[in-house]
Design brief:
By secondary structure, this protein is of the alpha+beta class. It has 3 helices and 4 strands; from the N terminus they run H-E-E-H-E-E-H. It has one domain. The protein has a 4-stranded antiparallel beta sheet with strand order 1-2-4-3. Helix 1 runs antiparallel to helix 2. Keywords: Signal. It comes from Gilvimarinus xylanilyticus. This is Lipoprotein.
């Protein structure tokens, strides 16, 4: 857990060095996992704005990348001074997700992004590991329940 915290802190400090002079929002990370009877390993990774902070952007709707990184395409034209750039937040989320998956060992062979969404104060990535669950995975991660996806 301390390594995960250190890795997350490194990602955010790097983002601070490359962004505007305003302080980025503090985000909390949560990984929810679920292993199905057929061996499919699904997850929802959430980056939640720490309580008491305003949301920078309202619903961008789901987007599917279908690969293990941010979706292709250019910027959606974030306005300077109007909150964090959604593309930068999404990139940070994928970096934090990769670190979390490496730390936990949940997706050892990579993952596919099924959907992404941003909403006021939250960014979420729903995905599936490319490998099927082993008995060790079932023992360690169980049949957890994923949060409801809207």
């Amino acid at each position: 857990m301390p390594r995960l915290l250190l890795c997350s802190l490194t990602v955010f400090l790097t983002a601070c060095a490359n962004g505007p002079d305003r302080e980025p929002p503090h985000m909390e990370h949560k990984l929810h996992t679920s292993i199905y009877d057929n061996g499919s390993k699904l997850f929802v990774f959430q980056m939640l704005r720490a309580s008491g902070q305003d949301g920078a952007r309202e619903g961008a709707g789901p987007r599917g990348g279908g690969h293990g990184g941010p979706p292709p395409g250019g910027s959606r034209g974030g306005k300077p001074g109007k909150g964090p750039d959604p593309d930068k937040l999404l990139k940070q989320a994928h970096e934090a997700l990769a670190l979390t998956l490496a730390e936990t060992g949940y997706c050892r062979e990579g993952y596919m992004t099924l959907e992404e969404k941003t909403d006021r104060g939250q960014l979420a990535i729903r995905g599936e590991c490319t490998e099927t669950a082993t008995e060790a995975d079932r023992e360690e991660f169980g049949k957890g329940k994923l949060p409801q996806w809207y």
